[in-house]
Amino acid sequence: MNSIQSLHIEAGIRALRAFVFEEGVLRILDQRALPGRTTWLSCSSVEEVAQAIECLAVRGAPAIGGAAALGMLLALDAEHIDDVKSRCAAADERLRKTRPTAVNLFVALDRVRAAWLPPAADAASLRARVVAAARGYVEDDRSACDALAAHGRDALNALIDDDSALMTICHTGALATCGGGTALHVLGALHAARPATHAVALETRPLLQGARLTAWECQQRGIPVTLITDSMAAFYMQQHKVGVAVVGADRIARNGDTANKVGTFALALACAHHGVPLFVAAPTTTIDVQCDSGAHIVIEQRHADEVRAFAGSASATPSTPVWNPSFDVTPAHLIRGYITERGVLSSSMLSKL
Ligand code: MRU
Questions:
Q1: Is the peptide bond before 35 cis (omega within 30 degrees of 0)?
Q2: 179-215 pLDDT per residue, tens
Q3: Which residues form ligand 1's pocket by a CB distance below 6 Å?
Q4: pTM to 2 decimal places
Q5: Percentages helix, strand, coil for the chain, rounded to the nearest 5?
Q6: 197 within 8 A of 187, measured Cβ to Cβ
Q7: Helix (H) / strand (E) containing 29
Q8: What angle do the packed helices 81-96 and 103-116 form, to 10 degrees?
Q9: CB 145 within 8 A of CB 177
Q10: How far apart are CA 201 and CA 323, in angstroms?
């Protein structure tokens, strides 16, 4: 069961796509409308892609990288090579300003920049290089998702039994990546190997990615799921058997400190109290080897209205002061291991990558 080929991926998951590039347009599934409505945004300019990333129509670290990489293809429409280059430079600058925390955005844009920055014979060969680089990022992320799911399945299978749940936060499935997902893909692979596997999804305030996306995607994949609010996690662990917690990541520092959706740190503390191992599942593109520790990770602050409202209705007065970090940083000592496409790594192995 330890080969990647043996990973059973349901056909339905292949149909869950965060975006698709066709006929010169990047079509982005608007995740803000899920699970109620399936709406696609048609982006024909870099600015439209940037705004789709900023408003979280597309979200999840690897998916942001994929959308940005493919968004660069919308900058290629010029005849002269100098014009293609200057359009690429402007697009790169705009997309880098969309969201600061998920490092995959910068990894993807670096990869595409390595295609448009060096000299080229003509505009056509430059364009071909950029297309190959953008598509390469997307394809590599898709393969990394399957590989890390297989590694995670084999590692976690040894830690759980049939009556223990797997807890997760935020959304880490197909729509958060270019492929099958990270933590949720591990859950899917485990469920395929051990049908009794069931998930506990934290709803993930303030934007409810856990309720709207994870609980929904689990149902799409046939994974039994229980939805709880974030504040119920510790009590759930006291009252029920939780075998393991698996979360995604937006940026992993060299020492293993991990930025992920706000609430992950509290979940990790509850896990430590109850002796539940917590794993981070992420492609190696989420590891920022330039970043020494979590103290150096820039945490995105989002609009106060996200906290002053619940599911679109005001839950506080408009003048209520709010603190709204989109992510928190879980210290490495609370993380048992990092499930990547290269295997399950310890924090001391990250700096060797
Ligand atoms: O603000 P979001 O929805 O982009 O935050 C997403 C998360 O924090 C995910 O857990 C993380 O990106 C891992 S996605 C595979």
A1: yes
A2: 999 999 999 999 999 999 999 999 999 999 999 999 9
A3: 56, 59-62, 102, 170, 172, 176-177, 182, 209, 248-250, 260-261, 326
A4: 0.94
A5: 45, 20, 35
A6: yes
A7: strand 25-29
A8: 170
A9: yes
A10: 24
